[in-house]
Amino acid sequence: MSFTQAHHVFAGVSETGINTFLKAVCTARGHYLNYGSSAFVPATTSGATNMASIPFPGIPGGIQWAVSLSTPVLDLFPDSSGGTSPLPPVANGFNVHTKAAIQIGCATWQGKDRAQMTPLKTVLDVWALGEIVSHYSGPGTGFISLKVDSVRIPGIKPDSLDKVLECLLRMILAAALANLTLPFQAFSLGAFQLILEQGPEISDNQVKVWGNIS
Amino acid sequence: MPDIIAAADPTATTVLLHDAETALGTITRSGGASLGPFGASYSVGATFSGGTVNLNPPNVVEIANCNLHYSVSLNFSLDLNSFLPHFCLPQICVFGICTPKICINWPTISVPFSFADNVKFTADFTLDAHLSGATWLIDVVIVGIPLLQFGAATAGVLAALGAALSLAMLAIPFIGPFLAGAVAVIVAAIGVAGLTGFLGTILTPFVSGLRFNIYKQPKKFPVLPAGGAIDPEVDVQITAIAAAVQATDKNELVITGDIAA
Questions:
Q1: Which domains does chain A have, with CATH numbers?
Q2: What is the distance in angstroms between the Cα of A36 and the nearest Cα belonging to chain B?
Q3: CA B58 to mean position of chain CA atoms
Q4: Which of A112, A118, B66, B119 could form a disulfide with B51 if both were Cys (CB 3.0 to 4.6 A apart)?
């Protein structure tokens, strides 16, 4: 079977290629993955996003916190883990694996004195299932983004804590991955300006698009 | 599996070729060449357009009916001494007074002449993917030297050259009207064969070694443009590019690439 099939051009990015693109984006723009209040992230930079602390009555300065995701690693359908993945990708989808580091400033204080803060950190293995979302507006334009459908954090007990953490990290992961975009132009490394006719589709460990060229 | 696979069928590859022809622009050359038994200096500009791509495994890109548009400005020098008879008026002495010996030295006339035309050619090209400095290129490079077949318009060019010669000769004082009759002899001496030989000589360098660039990207490939103070440009390094013609249920130009963050 030809690559282009009934179309004039084809472009496909392997999961290795997708992960290389993601690594490049996340390295240059770490603020998509790293968030924290001022005790952890004093100012917004390309590496991290400064957020407000969580206000809580009686805690001086509120609760200091930080969440950092490691560069997500995608496995495009079919499963490339050899059966070891806790959440194998489904047809036309991917799974994504990241490590979520959650930190809080464990504070102690007396009266209205400035709080003493000790950072506490836990790192969770997070797996998610997702799909590619296409944003195409005309010849030579457009990009894909990543949509998270469900999250799994193996080994969390009790179940109620598991559900809370999974929901929390699903929201965080979905918001963070929505920022990670890849232009269609990169699919062919600039070989042509794509007029999208079919795709993006995930199969054979690739994201595939078909169309014509302008 | 390569990180990137991009494939184009013959229709899309033809579009890539036409873009490459446009990007090549006008190429110019100048020099001197024989025009029949005469000499001519020339400058010529050439562009390429059109043509249809046929992809033939293993790695042949045939371009059929590619147009070579050319525009020639030539300076045709004609030494009238080379074909008009030489004669001298002998010295004559009368009563001890002698006239000098007078020899007629015919001038060399220079005839500027311009014309433009188009010639089609069909040739096989091969794929050449390579890194030049910090830029990845894929060129299609002609194999051999194609035959340039000049059409019936060549005779018209010859007639126009004759007309230009006539005008130039008429301007020569005293003998111009008589020399104009020699134009037919000169044109016949050049002939269609002489003109096509001249065109072949000056146009062959344009197709010899001809290469069209169908892919050009920096090794440091920009994935995302800078989007503000905290969103710097995102790049990947293209570590390998290859190109081949592959045949399955249809023939395709397949470009593969590997990248590194």
A1: 9-213 (3.15.10)
A2: 16
A3: 29
A4: B66
Is residue B173 a contact partner of residue B104, using CB atoms and an 8 Å limit?
no
The β-bridge relationship of strands A116-135 and B220-224 is: unpaired
- Of chain A residues 189-208, which have a CB less than 8 A from chain B? 189-192, 205-206
- For A188, other C-beta atoms within 10 Å of its C-beta total 26
User: What was the ipTM of the complex prediction?
Assistant: 0.92
- Strand-strand pairing, A34-36 and A49-50: parallel
Written in H, E and C, the secondary structure of A57-103 is: CCCCCCECEEEEECCCEEEECCCCCCCCCCCCCCCCCEEEEEEEEEE
pLDDT of B183 above 90 = no
Q: Report pLDDT digits (tens) over B208-244.
A: 999 999 999 999 999 999 999 999 999 999 999 999 9
Give the gap in angstroms from C-alpha B123 to the nearest C-alpha of chain A. 23
Tokens of B144: 């051999």
Q: What is the phi-psi region of residue B45: left when phi exceeds 0, alpha when psi lies from -120 to 50, beta otherwise?
A: beta
Q: Measured between alpha carbons, how far is A202 from A129 in angstroms, rounded to an integer?
A: 13
